[in-house]
């Protein structure tokens, strides 16, 4: 009876689907375990073998936990809104919904083929109105909330209104915009409703504001920082500029401290936690105000070194700082405007990363030193960012390397004075940036003090004269929440007199309208500006034609859509109760599942999705909708499976192609080659296939320079990518070798967290292992399993495997489990094991890794139903206890033979047996040894 993976895998995949084998219950008495993969985006290219790596790992854990008696939630769905589908729609005219639906069908087919134990009854898609109804609902909750620092949580905005009505805003300690003015209760109550609404926007957790954004003209949308690589859009490589736009934003900065504190409570890698700490960027220091000479304006700076206040030599503003156009002198206007225009073409990330380039322009303005009243020249420079701190720095070149380099670069030019030294240290060659080992000099009342005492004294004196105060600052900025695109969640917002109004939640979802074109309108509005039925009728409570807009009862709807991270910031909670039509998830379901026990996904989401998800979860907890502070208890970042790219080498005129071994010293250009035209094991190019391939029609008449009659391609490990033609389709592996082989091989490649290259040549060994496993149970005539009592060696082999595999799964060391399975099967084959007492638990043991063959073996052994919930084998140490020891017997330190003896013998008994052995007598040849050294369980040595 042979192992036919195609029949076995198809049969059990159908069985699982028909019987809903992996459906989780929301009311089980079993302990719960929630294992989750990061939301996949369904691209048209489908899955390559790198994509399932994390899914296989999470599936092993999910299956293992079911065997252990847990009620396991292991759901899957699709992050199906996004720019790629929209770009494809723009190019082809096809609706993004159609292409997304087709892509999802392709993904589902591939995922099913690999045999994942997903609970497909809970599938969600962010682009389905049934799902984004609740994304819109959460947006409304954020709009109707503010953050109270005294309570350290989000509260209903109605609470804040009640405070304003009774007390005004002078005493409130809440998150709000910087430009909020103080008003009394009487003043608030006298404000018009319009003015009240505009003021409340400055306090809401989601709000409209003019914001510096990354604008990509080619894509017609705003991009998040993590969507930009090297100053261009990650999608398409288009230029990105900085510009001000009115955008929806999320007040994530209010949660900065809680986001930091929460990192101490979760089981994530230290490197990932450090990424978030750096992104949040907590700094303790002082806020200082500098009066601009001859004007009403003040420049506020945040500094972590208030002790260096007397070393301020100049000031630098971000080019986008709102004061720049107001304080720049007429003489400097042209230079400043030119510099601002040039800077707008560089992304914030690019500016932060570029520490070598020094550039800036003097504004012509001066500020007053708060203590000495000396004039301080004000510059602009792109190393200062408008969104970080106040967008202004007090430059102390003697104590900061970047300020030092800036001052020296512009030394001797208008507006750059000599560097002031306030340390009793030499700064002739470099700045002194240490916080210890100095005393302050030339610093008035700070003379003789160190960093700590100087900082405290400086803040005290600044507070006395009203020029500053102690402050904690965060690098984390509020998240822009608008995108000028079509394929995203519509906002549940209409506008009355330019002010946003929330649509009542009972009328959700507000469904994405049909449009003729997915591009921005001719007058620059977002694509929803092309919609003809996109107005809100406040009487009918329905979306109606734009022609009815009268700004009395019918009003325009929001034209922006939500960003890609909106739907993925709460999806794990929807999985808890995916079919619920009346709430985003029932209280019972949320209380049962709590949060995700194990989350697996890529580290590239460290400061994007993972930060936003934690923010939304904390907010939902504040408002009583979530039970836990953190959404993901344990997080593992899987490494990348790299592709083995292939190259041919062409001459400059493209008329000649040289084999790899012949290119030394030649001026040739490597060209990526599709893996379908090479032998992946021998690296030989199939020249005729190459010529016939549509990608390489330019080389039909090229001359191929061969080595030993063959054209050998070059190979290089790179990121697996369609553009590099090094993608391996998992379908091909499943068809030829089976899904169980693919699953085992991906785990076998190396530790889960590490990057590793794919090599198809190695997969045959894993396939051979499965066939060898099969032959333990079957011969050509069928099942050969017997009920005889196994030998001690058989039990030993089984239980050391149980021990190893259990430890490996608990430690997420899946690659070494596969090695142990191979060792186990080899040993059992040598032991001629056909014993049910060994082979039944072995089938359960391998089930998380190779579920199809395990199901078939379990069924053939005479069991009904699925193996999925059969109890996992328990390790018993007694089977690994050694009763005998093979001793090396040495004469004068040289080992001559070995002898196997029981471990419970005394030293005298061991000596008697060894001395009586004929091999000992032969070595001694009648002599009596001077000494017999015996260490029980270790050595026997006869001396003299």
Automatic annotation (TrEMBL):
It is found in: Cytoplasm. It holds the Pfam family tRNA-synt_1. Its EC number is 6.1.1.4. Its main location: cytoplasm. SUPFAM superfamilies: Anticodon-binding domain of a subclass of class I aminoacyl-tRNA synthetases, Nucleotidylyl transferase, ValRS/IleRS/LeuRS editing domain. A motif ('KMSKS' region) lies at residues 719-723. NCBIfam families: leuS_bact. Belongs to the class-I aminoacyl-tRNA synthetase family. CDD domains: Anticodon_Ia_Leu_BEm (cd07958), LeuRS_core (cd00812). GO terms for cellular component: cytosol. The lineage of its organism: Bacteria, Pseudomonadati, Bacteroidota, Flavobacteriia, Flavobacteriales. Residues 277-462 form the Leucyl-tRNA synthetase editing domain. Residues 794-906 form the Methionyl/Valyl/Leucyl/Isoleucyl-tRNA synthetase anticodon-binding domain. InterPro entries: aa-tRNA-synth_I_CS, aa-tRNA-synth_Ia, Leu-tRNA-ligase, Leu_tRNA-synth_edit, M/V/L/I-tRNA-synth_anticd-bd, Rossmann-like_a/b/a_fold, tRNAsynth_Ia_anticodon-bd, Val/Leu/Ile-tRNA-synth_edit. One of its GO terms (biological process) is leucyl-tRNA aminoacylation. It catalyses: tRNA(Leu) + L-leucine + ATP = L-leucyl-tRNA(Leu) + AMP + diphosphate. The gene is leuS. The keyword Aminoacyl-tRNA synthetase applies. This is Leucine--tRNA ligase. Keywords: Aminoacyl-tRNA synthetase, ATP-binding, Cytoplasm, Ligase, Nucleotide-binding, Protein biosynthesis. GO terms for molecular function: aminoacyl-tRNA deacylase activity; ATP binding; leucine-tRNA ligase activity. Residues 12-154, 714-745 form the Aminoacyl-tRNA synthetase class Ia domain. ATP binds at residue 722. Gene3D superfamilies: HUPs, Isoleucyl-tRNA Synthetase, Domain 1.
């Amino acid at each position: 009876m042979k192992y036919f993976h195609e029949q076995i895998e198809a049969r059990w995949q159908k069985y699982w689907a028909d019987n809903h084998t992996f459906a989780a219950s929301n009311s089980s008495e079993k302990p719960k375990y929630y294992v989750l993969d990061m939301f996949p985006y369904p691209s048209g290219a489908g899955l390559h073998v790198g994509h399932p790596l994390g899914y296989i790992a999470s599936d092993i854990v999910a299956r293992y936990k079911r065997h252990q008696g847990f009620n396991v939630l292991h759901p899957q769905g699709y992050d199906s809104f996004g720019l790629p589908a929209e770009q494809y729609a723009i190019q082809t005219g096809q609706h993004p919904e159609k292409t997304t639906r087709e892509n999802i069908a392709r993904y589902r087919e591939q995922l099913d083929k690999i045999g994942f134990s997903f609970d497909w009854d809970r599938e969600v898609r962010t682009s389905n109105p049934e799902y984004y109804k609740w994304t819109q609902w959460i947006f409304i909750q954020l709009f109707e909330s503010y953050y109270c620092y005294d309570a350290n949580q989000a509260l209903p905005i109605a609470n804040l209104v009640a405070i304003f009505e009774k007390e005004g805003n002078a005493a409130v300690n809440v998150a709000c915009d910087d430009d909020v003015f103080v008003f009394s209760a009487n003043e608030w109550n006298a404000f018009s409703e319009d003015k009240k609404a505009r003021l409340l926007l400055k306090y809401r957790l989601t709000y409209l504001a003019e914001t510096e954004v990354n604008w990509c003209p080619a894509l017609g949308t705003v991009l998040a920082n993590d969507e930009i690589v090297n100053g261009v859009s990650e999608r398409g490589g288009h230029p990105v500029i900085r510009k001000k736009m009115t955008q929806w934003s999320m007040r994530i900065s209010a949660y900065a401290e809680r986001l930091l504190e929460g990192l101490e409570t979760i089981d994530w890698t230290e490197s990932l936690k450090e990424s978030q700490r750096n992104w949040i960027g907590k700094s303790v220091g002082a806020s200082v105000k500098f009066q601009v000479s001859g004007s009403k304006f003040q420049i506020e700076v945040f500094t972590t070194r208030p002790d260096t206040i007397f070393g301020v030599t100049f000031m630098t503003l971000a080019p986008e700082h709102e004061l720049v156009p107001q304080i720049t002198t007429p003489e400097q206007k042209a230079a400043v405007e030119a510099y601002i225009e040039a800077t707008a073409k560089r992304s914030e990330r690019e500016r932060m990363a570029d520490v070598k380039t020094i550039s800036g322009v003097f504004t012509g303005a001066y500020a007053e030193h708060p203590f000495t009243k000396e004039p301080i020249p004000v510059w602009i420079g792109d190393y200062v960012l408008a969104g970080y701190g106040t967008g202004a720095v007090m430059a102390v070149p003697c104590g900061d390397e970047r300020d030092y380099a800036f001052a020296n670069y512009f030394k001797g030019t208008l507006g750059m004075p000599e560097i002031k030294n306030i340390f009793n240290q030499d700064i002739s060659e470099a700045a002194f940036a240490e916080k210890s080992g100095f005393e302050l000099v030339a610093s008035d009342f700070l003379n003789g003090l160190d960093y700590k005492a100087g900082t405290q004294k400086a803040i005290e004196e600044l507070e006395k004269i009203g020029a500053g105060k102690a402050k904690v600052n965060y690098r984390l900025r509020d998240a822009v929440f608008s995108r000028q695109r079509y394929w995203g969640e519509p906002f549940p917002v209409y506008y009355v007199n330019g002010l946003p109004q929330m649509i009542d939640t009972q009328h959700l979802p507000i469904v994405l309208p049909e449009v003729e074109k997915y591009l921005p309108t001719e007058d620059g509005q977002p694509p929803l500006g092309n919609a003809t039925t996109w107005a809100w009728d406040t009487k009918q409570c329905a979306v109606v034609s734009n022609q009815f807009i009268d700004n009395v009862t019918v009003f325009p709807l929001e034209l922006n859509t939500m960003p890609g991270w909106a739907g993925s910031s709460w999806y794990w909670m929807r999985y808890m109760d995916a079919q619920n039509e009346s709430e985003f998830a029932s209280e019972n379901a949320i209380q049962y599942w709590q949060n995700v026990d194990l989350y697996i996904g890529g580290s590239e989401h460290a400061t994007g999705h993972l930060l936003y998800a934690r923010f939304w979860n904390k907010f939902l907890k504040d408002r009583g909708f979530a039970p836990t502070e953190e959404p993901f208890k344990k997080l593992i970042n899987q490494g990348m499976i790299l592709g083995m790219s292939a190259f041919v080498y062409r001459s400059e005129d493209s008329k000649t192609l040289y084999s790899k071994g012949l290119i030394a010293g030649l001026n040739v250009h490597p060209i990526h080659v599709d893996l379908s035209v090479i032998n992946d094991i021998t690296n030989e190019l199939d020249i005729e296939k190459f010529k016939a391939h549509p990608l390489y029609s330019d080389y039909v008449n090229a001359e191929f320079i061969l080595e030993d009659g063959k054209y050998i391609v070059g190979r290089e490990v790179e990121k697996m990518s369609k553009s590099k033609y090094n993608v391996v389709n998992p379908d091909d592996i499943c068809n030829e070798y089976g899904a169980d082989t693919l699953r085992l091989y991906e785990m076998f490649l190396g530790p889960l967290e590490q990057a590793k290259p794919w090599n198809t040549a190695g997969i045959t060994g894993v396939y051979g292992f499965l066939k060898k496993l099969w032959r333990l149970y079957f011969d050509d005539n069928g099942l050969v399993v017997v009920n005889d009592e196994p030998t001690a060696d058989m039990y030993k082999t089984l239980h050391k495997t149980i021990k190893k595999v259990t430890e490996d799964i608990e430690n997420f060391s899946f690659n070494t489990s596969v090695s142990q399975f191979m060792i186990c099967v080899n040993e059992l084959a040598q032991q001629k094991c056909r014993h049910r007492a060994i082979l039944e638990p072995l089938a359960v043991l391998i089930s998380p890794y190779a579920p199809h063959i395990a199901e078939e073996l379990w069924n053939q052994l005479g069991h009904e139903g699925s193996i999925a919930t059969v109890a996992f084998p328990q390790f018993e140490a007694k089977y690994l206890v050694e009763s005998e020891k093979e001793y090396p017997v040495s004469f004068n330190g040289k080992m001559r033979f070995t002898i196997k003896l029981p471990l419970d013998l005394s030293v005298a008994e061991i000596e008697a047996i060894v001395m009586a052995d004929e091999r000992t007598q032969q070595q001694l040849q009648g002599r009596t040894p001077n000494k017999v050294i015996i260490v029980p369980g270790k050595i026997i040595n006869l001396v003299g």
